[in-house]
TrEMBL record:
UniProt GO cellular component terms: cytoplasm
Cofactor(s) annotated in UniProt: pyridoxal 5'-phosphate
EC number: 2.6.1.-
Transmembrane segments: none
SUPFAM superfamilies listed in its UniProt record: PLP-dependent transferases
Organism: Pigmentiphaga litoralis
Protein name: Methionine aminotransferase
Length: 388
């Protein structure tokens, strides 16, 4: 019998809930992907790249034009100074970038701090690298502070001489939390005191609301110098099925990153890179994203306000959380299943993003809704939720 490297890992909650949604004709507000097409101009550019013969292996780090476009964008938005040749690598989605960064710098026995709740690929990747995940819980919402937030004193206390990495993800999936300047100040102090490295998962960098700028670690030279900063074209341009992202890091860190990258995927789909490089020449394609998604957030929040769900603020991402305590006292996973089967709307339990999803501290009667959907999809979901 094969001795599993991940004996505790089964089918993800996203697969489970999406399958239930399909089987029961539910509106799927669970898995985080748009139900609308990307910009026709982008599709045309990728199609043209194929017809023009860009169909063979790309250069291992990514085509030069796309890396240059990424470097220009990060300079204009964050004042970052990433060199296209030595500091930027195009990846097969952000998940591959995360795995690559972890494998590049985590050795057996190294500790890696992860903030809970967290995206479900983090802990398995750490374990595959031989590392030891060290969970540190985000402070949960309160009436006076209704969003999750990091407790940097708690993070600092969890760091030991064996700590190699701190993984952060803001805007945060699943809670929608974002960082501010005070958070970056605290991170700078931690890095200066301990010398740890950061993986900053910033796939929702362009989906931050209410006029607030994204607090990328790339804004701070002291943080950028020790960070793998990861983003996703799939989230930014509504192309999650293309699986294309990128990683920015200093040259010495990128050198180690690419050693792993070349043996994971070697290179990423060439026509997609060619099309994206041209598409990025117009900044409005990502600068207009906050307003685009804020309209959808507000539509879903206003609709949920007419139901028995209590909406929590969503400062970023294309997710929002809602409290269902006025509806049911079921644990979150059971409630999500019940809602799908009985009312035809699929959601994701926040408890699924914790190491122990059955623990009382993981179950706060919260579920996550994805609003990256057409207006009519959101309207149908709201109509069904009003009957709950």
């Amino acid at each position: 019998m094969l001795n599993s490297k991940l004996p505790d890992v089964g089918v993800t909650i996203f697969t489970v809930m999406s399958r239930l949604a399909a089987e029961h004709q539910a509106v799927n507000l669970g898995q985080g992907y748009p139900d609308f097409d990307p910009d026709p101009e982008l599709l045309s550019l990728v199609n043209r790249a194929m017809l023009d013969g860009h169909n063979q292996y790309a250069f291992m780090p990514g085509i030069a034009a796309l890396r240059e476009a990424i470097a220009l964008k990060t300079t204009q938005l964050y004042g970052a100074n990433y060199h296209a040749d030595s500091d930027i690598t195009v990846t097969s989605g952000a998940t591959q970038a995360l795995m690559t960064a972890i494998l590049a710098c985590v050795h057996p026995g190294d500790e890696v701090i992860v903030l809970e709740p967290n995206y479900d690929s983090y802990v398995p990747a750490i374990r595959l690298a031989g590392g030891i995940p060290v969970p540190v819980a985000l402070t949960p919402p309160t009436p006076s502070h209704p969003t999750f937030r990091p407790d940097w004193d708690r993070v600092r206390a969890a760091i030991t001489p064996r700590t190699r990495l701190l993984m952060i993800n803001f805007p945060h999936n699943p809670t929608g939390a974002v960082l501010n300047d005070a958070d970056l100040d605290a991170l700078e102090r931690i890095v200066a005191e301990t010398g740890i490295y950061l993986i900053s998962d910033e796939v929702y960098e362009h989906i931050v609301f209410d006029g607030v700028p994204h607090a990328s670690v790339a804004r701070r030279p002291a943080l950028a110098a020790r960070s793998f900063v990861i983003s996703s074209f799939g989230k930014t341009f509504h192309t999650t099925g293309w699986k294309i992202g990128y990683c920015c890091a200093p040259a010495n860190m990128t050198e180690e990153f690419r050693k792993v990258h070349q043996f994971m995927v070697f290179s990423v789909a060439t026509p997609l890179q060619v099309g994206l490089a041209v598409f990025m020449a117009e900044p409005r394609h990502y600068l207009d994203l906050p307003a685009f998604y804020q309209t959808k957030r507000d539509q879903l929040a206003a609709g949920l306000a007419t139901t028995r769900f209590k909406v929590l603020p969503s400062p970023g991402t294309f997710f929002l959380m809602a409290d269902y305590s006025a509806v049911s006292d079921l644990p979150e996973a059971e409630f999500a299943r019940w809602l799908t089967l009985n009312h035809g709307v699929a959601v994701i339990p926040i408890a699924a993003f914790y190491g122990d999803p059955h623990a009382a501290t993981s179950n706060r009667q919260l579920v996550r809704f994805c609003f990256a959907k057409r207006a009519e999809t959101l309207d149908l979901a709201i109509e069904r939720l009003r009957r709950v």
